[in-house]
């Protein structure tokens, strides 16, 4: 494996961290000065963060003594049982996350796929400290009633500038769960509008009275179809379509909505082409049966391009094209949940671009790396026929939309989507070679051609995640035994070398 690496050569850290000090990002960058540049001098790459550390730094066990004190204090006022590590974001930089004890880890989990262009990115800091941002923060508008005068411009130059092809409108929201729930509401209103005969047909007296009693027809017997192992959020409606882990759903009342099987592919894909094609057809056939026979007819199908929380499960473009054909055939909506896959991580700005659909999805939901949330749509019939039907106080957040605009500009300035595609190929090939050496630790490697959206299964997954921190990498899991990579868009080949070298240390242990 050593021959695969160009940059991870047992070099000493470029600096010694001070665990007790509070260092501003500017001072931190000075201490890191030229470290990353030196580390990639022979790689041919220009680092996006030239002042990054040369490599991870481990000063103490994780959590160390200072982190333990902070965790104990936080635990008295906040639930810390799901805590991964106590981070110091003032000292985190680029691809590296720092803690309170002088440890600096290469972060390939990135706040569960949510940091797009690096910690303490200078371009984002400029946007965050602009007068425009200050106004949006301290005068936060209730956008449905009192939109700010430049809201259209903020949307057009930001969120809508990267809208999926064919979707030229947006409804903004607060989170990924919220985005999906809003999309479900839009789907239900669209379907009932169809059933009544169009947007101009008013509600009946029975519609109005029964809705107040949570009964049909005002509260219609409709559903959203999702898939086994899916994750679409933890709010009430979105939770009814989440099927990834029981702990998310226990004790919460849920709608009786259908779940179709998601393909369980066999790897390597080229060795099981016939079996996988049959498996995908089986899932499509069962999806169609549920559409036709479920007692509460689906108004929409929702699907993730990669089932992230549920185990990083993939399917082929042909499968998703088949789903789109089914929604067209049965006159229901096709919602693509790009909360985790969107904004460049798969080597395309939107993961569904890999599918080559003949017609776009009806709605695409987004959040995470966008740092804001909502759903894109193109059909005017998806606008409710009356005001206040799709409404809440904030209806999104101009401050977060401004930040997403800055993120988009940074992605375009550095050509980060193409870079992520190239880095992903390099990383996948390195992992494939590791899998040959450590077949028990890297099983069912998946994500080829999907940027850095890569995962594999491990019989000792939790041990790999724990030991990863000990060698300086912050890495995540999903499902029961998947190790998933979710690096930032500024992750480059020399970072991949560092990751591969440290993974090999873990596998050897």
From TrEMBL:
Gene3D superfamilies: Aspartate Aminotransferase, domain 1, Type I PLP-dependent aspartate aminotransferase-like (Major domain). It catalyses: 4-aminobutanoate + 2-oxoglutarate = succinate semialdehyde + L-glutamate. This is 4-aminobutyrate aminotransferase. The keyword Secreted does not apply. Keywords: Aminotransferase, Pyridoxal phosphate, Transferase. It is an enzyme of class 2 (transferase). It comes from Dothidotthia symphoricarpi CBS 119687. CDD domains: OAT_like. The keyword DNA repair does not apply. One of its GO terms (cellular component) is mitochondrion. One of its GO terms (biological process) is gamma-aminobutyric acid catabolic process. InterPro entries: 4NH2But_aminotransferase_euk (IPR004631), Aminotrans_3 (IPR005814), Aminotrans_3_PPA_site (IPR049704), PyrdxlP-dep_Trfase (IPR015424), PyrdxlP-dep_Trfase_major (IPR015421), PyrdxlP-dep_Trfase_small (IPR015422). PROSITE patterns: AA_TRANSFER_CLASS_3. Its cofactor is pyridoxal 5'-phosphate. Belongs to the class-III pyridoxal-phosphate-dependent aminotransferase family. Its EC number is 2.6.1.19. Coiled coil: none annotated.
């Amino acid at each position: 494996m050593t021959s695969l690496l160009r940059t991870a050569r047992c070099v000493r850290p470029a600096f010694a961290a001070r665990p007790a000090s509070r260092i501003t990002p500017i001072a931190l960058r000075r201490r890191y000065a030229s470290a990353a540049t030196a580390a990639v001098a022979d790689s041919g790459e220009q680092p996006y963060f030239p002042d990054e550390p040369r490599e991870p730094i481990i000063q103490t066990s994780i959590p160390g003594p200072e982190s333990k004190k902070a965790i104990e204090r936080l635990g008295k006022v906040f639930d810390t049982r799901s805590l991964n590590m106590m981070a110091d974001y003032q000292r985190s930089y680029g691809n590296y996350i720092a803690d309170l004890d002088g440890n600096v880890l290469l972060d390939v989990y990135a706040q569960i796929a949510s940091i797009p262009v690096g910690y303490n990115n200078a371009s984002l800091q400029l946007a965050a400290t602009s007068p425009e941002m200050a106004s949006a923060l301290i005068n936060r508008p209730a956008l449905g009633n009192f939109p700010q005068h430049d809201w259209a411009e903020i949307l057009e130059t930001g969120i809508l500038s990267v809208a999926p092809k064919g979707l030229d409108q947006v409804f903004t929201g607060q989170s990924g769960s919220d985005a999906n729930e809003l999309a479900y509401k839009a789907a239900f209103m669209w379907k009932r509008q169809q059933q009544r005969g169009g947007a101009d047909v008013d509600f009946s007296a029975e519609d109005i009275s029964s809705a107040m009693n949570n009964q049909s027809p005002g509260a219609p017997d409709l559903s959203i179809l999702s898939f086994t192992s899916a994750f679409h959020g933890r709010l009430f409606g979105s939770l009814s379509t989440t099927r990834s882990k029981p702990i998310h759903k226990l004790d919460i009342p849920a709608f009786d909505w259908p779940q179709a099987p998601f393909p369980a592919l066999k790897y390597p894909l080229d060795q099981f082409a016939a079996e996988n094609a049959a498996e995908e057809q089986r899932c499509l056939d069962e999806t169609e049966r549920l559409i036709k026979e479920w007692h509460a007819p689906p108004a929409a199908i929702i699907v993730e391009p990669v089932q992230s929380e549920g185990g990083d499960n993939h399917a082929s473009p042909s499968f998703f094209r088949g789903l789109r054909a089914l929604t067209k055939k049965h006159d229901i909506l096709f919602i693509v949940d790009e909360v985790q896959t969107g904004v460049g991580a798969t080597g395309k700005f939107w993961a569904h671009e890999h599918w080559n659909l003949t017609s776009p999805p009806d709605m695409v939901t987004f959040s995470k790396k966008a740092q804001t949330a909502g759903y894109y749509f193109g059909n005017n019939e998806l606008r409710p026929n009356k005001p206040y039907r799709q409404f809440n106080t904030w209806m999104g957040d101009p401050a977060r939309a401004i930040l997403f605009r800055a993120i988009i500009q940074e992605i375009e300035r550095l050509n980060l989507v193409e870079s992520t595609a190239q880095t992903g190929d390099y990383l996948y090939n390195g992992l494939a070679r590791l899998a040959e050496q450590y077949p028990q630790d890297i099983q069912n490697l998946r994500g080829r051609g999907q940027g850095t959206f890569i995962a594999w299964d491990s019989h000792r997954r939790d041990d790999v995640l724990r030991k990863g921190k000990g060698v300086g990498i912050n890495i995540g899991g999903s499902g029961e035994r998947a190790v998933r990579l979710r690096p930032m868009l500024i992750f480059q080949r020399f970072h991949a070398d560092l990751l591969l070298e440290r993974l090999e240390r873990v596998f050897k242990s």
